[in-house]
């Protein structure tokens, strides 16, 4: 369990690298699924186009939705979008940045599926075999004697080797359609690469300060949510521990006295420190109604993103006053030779 816990903590601390790895695994899985998938065209005019185009588009849509499901930032984005405004305003640029980041990762596996499918050409052949002009690929005098319905049925059988009798015509038509499919695949890859290049090249042309601000606050929202969850877990653990201790203390006074008798011999100081630490983690919230109120206020009215400077001034002034009093007492008692001089510099930062 410790190893799994360490692995989970590592993944949480390296969430961006973890999500990039998930996207890479999904891309490899899409390619592997297509290679192991047995493509079987129905070879019927009513279903060829639907089956071929469906195989080209439906799996990418599924991979795209799966990328959103596996991304933890989707819940952060939805929570930030739907939360009440309260004391903290919502910035649309941060929401757009988070949505674009999630979308970019989710598009990797669908793009790979479409490119592999077009390079293979089977679905393209199945979808567009009925639109061929078969007279370009060899002796097709027998087709002139057929009706339009029979001709379409014959062309729909081109993807199926065992159903099409004229082998030379089938091979020529198959190569022709596969060449068109591969050309579309290379154009698709070129468009994706060119789009990614434009995004990379155009981004520095805009104000970097706005981009850095958006990136910073998007990271802040994610980290704030994680820290709030961790604080709630610690509070819940301490709350449960204190409640259980109080329950057993109230149930049996004799057992509690016996427990105190043995704890004095077996190092009760550690237990007292644990109790104090649990009390500190409660942060003064010791009732169910109070905790429910805290959680409700956190959802409806999050605190403003501005640190109160008066509290920082009070803390720094108290520390400085304590040092001055120590120095003055040392001078009054004649111990100035043992007092070290220290320089104090206080820095304030606005968030």
Automatic annotation (TrEMBL):
<keyword id="KW-0812">Transmembrane</keyword>
<keyword id="KW-0813">Transport</keyword>
<keyword id="KW-0472">Membrane</keyword>
<feature type="transmembrane region" description="Helical">
    <location>
        <begin position="21"/>
        <end position="37"/>
    </location>
</feature>
<dbReference type="Pfam" id="PF14798">
    <property type="entry name" value="Ca_hom_mod"/>
</dbReference>
<keyword id="KW-0406">Ion transport</keyword>
<dbReference type="InterPro" id="IPR029569">
    <property type="entry name" value="CALHM"/>
</dbReference>
<keyword id="KW-0407">Ion channel</keyword>
<keyword id="KW-1133">Transmembrane helix</keyword>
<feature type="transmembrane region" description="Helical">
    <location>
        <begin position="183"/>
        <end position="202"/>
    </location>
</feature>
<comment type="similarity">
    <text>Belongs to the CALHM family.</text>
</comment>
<feature type="compositionally biased region" description="Basic and acidic residues">
    <location>
        <begin position="264"/>
        <end position="278"/>
    </location>
</feature>
<feature type="transmembrane region" description="Helical">
    <location>
        <begin position="49"/>
        <end position="70"/>
    </location>
</feature>
<feature type="region of interest" description="Disordered">
    <location>
        <begin position="258"/>
        <end position="278"/>
    </location>
</feature>
<protein>
    <recommendedName>
        <fullName>Calcium homeostasis modulator protein 1</fullName>
    </recommendedName>
</protein>
